[in-house]
Amino acid sequence: MQRYSPRNDSDLIPSRVIDTATVNSDANAISCVSTTTTTTTTSEIEITEVAKEGEKADPSQFELLSTIGQGSFGKVMLVRKTRGRDAGELFAMKILKKATLKVRDRYRTKAERDILARFRHPFIVRLHYAFQTEGKLYLILDFLPGGDLFNRLSKEIMFTEDDVKFYLAEIALALGHLHSLGIAYRDLKPENVLLDANGHISLTDFGLSKESIEKDGKTYSFCGTVEYMAPEVVNRRGHTVAADWWSLGVLMYEMLTGSLPFHGSNRRETMSLILRAKLTMPRSLSAAAQHLLRALFKRNPSNRLGSSSEDVKQIKAHPFFDSINWDKLYLRQVQPPFKPLCTPSNHTCCFDQEYTRKTPDDSPALPPSATAHELFRGFSYVAPAVLSADKPSDCATSSLQGVEKASIFDDYNMKENLGVGSFSLCKKCVHKKTGAEFAVKIIDKSKRDASEEVDILRRYSHHANIVKLFSVYEDSLNIYLVEELCSGGELLNRIMTLKHFSEREAAAVMLRLANAISYLHSNQVVHRDLKPSNIMYASKTADPDSVRIIDFGFAKQLRAENGLLMTPCYTAQFVAPEVLKKQGYDMNCDVWSLGVLLYTMLSGETPFATSDGDTPQKILKRVGDGKFSLNDAAWNNISEQAKDLVQSLLHVDPSKRLSAKQILIHPWIVHRNSLPTTRLNFPTDPSKLKVTFKRCSHCHHHAKNSLP
């Protein structure tokens, strides 16, 4: 018996998306865009993640093969690259007409482009190029031949719970990654979940995504597809990333039953059902499935599964997912329940023939104004994997010397996540033969070249205060660095939780850090990303001797004749002024970051972000001007020698800063054993410090466009 039939026509009309038009069967298109033309008012759109060098793209480099989606704003086409290192590869080309984009839709297009340019994840569609002509914007994305889940839902006879479990698990990992970066997805629905050639999912369409949402922050936008909206979105009382977990519940219910949990005869009735209707669970569902649905369908978002700071960890721990091997799933080593049947001669078999039978064309479009091109200044983008062809130093690692021949999964059992970065994932692992615990840093080869980091760690990780590298593994997707497990936690957590943290202990920590940095600098190595989260304790006792500098992902071996690095790379709050001004910079940048760390250890505050309301622009201006205060209450009982060292390290002129070697002979360090042992009194709640640092970490995106 057919268990699912396509939605009726009324379900496919634009009213399903609030104030917007939906692109039906659109594999890679924005689903929340305006159907009306723009006014004559122009508004410049700030673009981040700007790629300024490498292979440029334009429409002439792509052969149009087929239309796979279309809306009033433009279309999505299957294309083949005809030139360059990726010639012959298939992509999805999203074409947006500038003249049909209202101001809000320009910002949504900008948001999607920026988010996709920021990161890579196995279950999020990848952006390869972005470019524009006078009348159009182009996004070149992965072509995912399996179509979307809506297409599969409308054709499938039955989804088993195991099928649903697989898809939900991959979606959950993608959502968890977005949330870890402060991004709420806000448009989860079957049409935005695509299947690749092997049957794995990819989230697409980030036009409604909202960046910079902290765990305790809210956004009040009313947008999305109404049937998948959480109650707090419908009632406009403000929502967090927890709204995505409600939408996951809607998708789960739909896949398991073939119908939507809350679906009225019109939009108003649907919204009323979401806010008040009691949901009956089908008896055919397992107890675990029913329990998960009830946990996701909590109308009070604070009671919803996934709403705590644990976020996706709560989802992963639910009994419904007990059979999922999350490590193998992330590495795409779990066999999908369905593999698309498309062949090389029929790439579009999983797409609606309403679009695929149309003759593909990219007709000219008139610009909305004479300054249309400036509206999206900096829109062009080339993915790192493409840039690698022209820049060997940045290329994805193909092989490394001295890597282990076995698979890392033969030697180690993977455990819980320890941290997620822009380029890598860090997990705890246990050696199968010895039971010894380690940390493994997993680096996506397509995103970053790990050879510099591996080389530096192999040469210099024997230093007492640098994290130890034990072995290196490699497969077709990733580089695995097996490192010392720092079980004592981050330096910042130490400061926040210690009942007794004194100026003497701060000096002991600074001695170890300066010693390690001095050692690196003597070998012409700069770390370039010193911050609290990259300073850890190897021992749970948090003895100063166990301090370790970790994460050498931004580290460089200086090679230029003048000793200066010329590739700006920084994390806001730890950014030296000369870096912000795009001047050459050398080892004094690390010294600057040590100054920020010392300021924080002594005062419990950051020197350049002084309030919750500070904008990135304000923070970066203070950094550039070298303005900070030593007159607050937190500094009343701090020694004059400590203040002198802070000022010497944070001097705006790099030539007047101390070197790491000079720190070791500063009186505050030399006479550290005579420093006060009384507890440092932080004037504010130290737990807010982490929020400040997290907020500041986003500043570098703004800095790239604010520099002269």
Automatic annotation (TrEMBL):
Residues at the catalytic site: D187, D529
Protein origin, superkingdom: Eukaryota
Catalysis: reaction(s): L-threonyl-[protein] + ATP = O-phospho-L-threonyl-[protein] + ADP + H(+); L-seryl-[protein] + ATP = O-phospho-L-seryl-[protein] + ADP + H(+)
GO biological process, one term: intracellular signal transduction
Top class in the EC scheme: transferase
EC number from the UniProt entry: 2.7.11.1
Cofactor(s) needed by this chain: Mg(2+)
Molecular function terms, GO-annotated: ATP binding; magnesium ion binding; protein serine/threonine kinase activity
Signal peptide as annotated in the record: none
Keyword set, alphabetical order: ATP-binding, Kinase, Nucleotide-binding, Phosphoprotein, Repeat, Serine/threonine-protein kinase, Transferase
Ranges annotated as spanning the membrane: none
InterPro entries linked to this entry: AGC-kinase_C, Kinase-like_dom_sf, Prot_kinase_dom, Protein_kinase_ATP_BS, Ribosomal_S6_kinase_II, Ser/Thr_kinase_AS
Limits of the AGC-kinase C-terminal domain: 322-391
UniProt domain Protein kinase: residue ranges: 62-321, 412-669
Residues the entry annotates as binding ATP: K94, L418, G419, V420, G421, S422, F423, S424, L425, C426, K441
Family as reported in the entry's similarity comment: Belongs to the protein kinase superfamily. AGC Ser/Thr protein kinase family. S6 kinase subfamily.
PANTHER family recorded: RIBOSOMAL PROTEIN S6 KINASE
Name by which UniProt lists this protein: non-specific serine/threonine protein kinase
UniProt source species: Thelazia callipaeda
Lineage start: Eukaryota, Metazoa, Ecdysozoa, Nematoda, Chromadorea
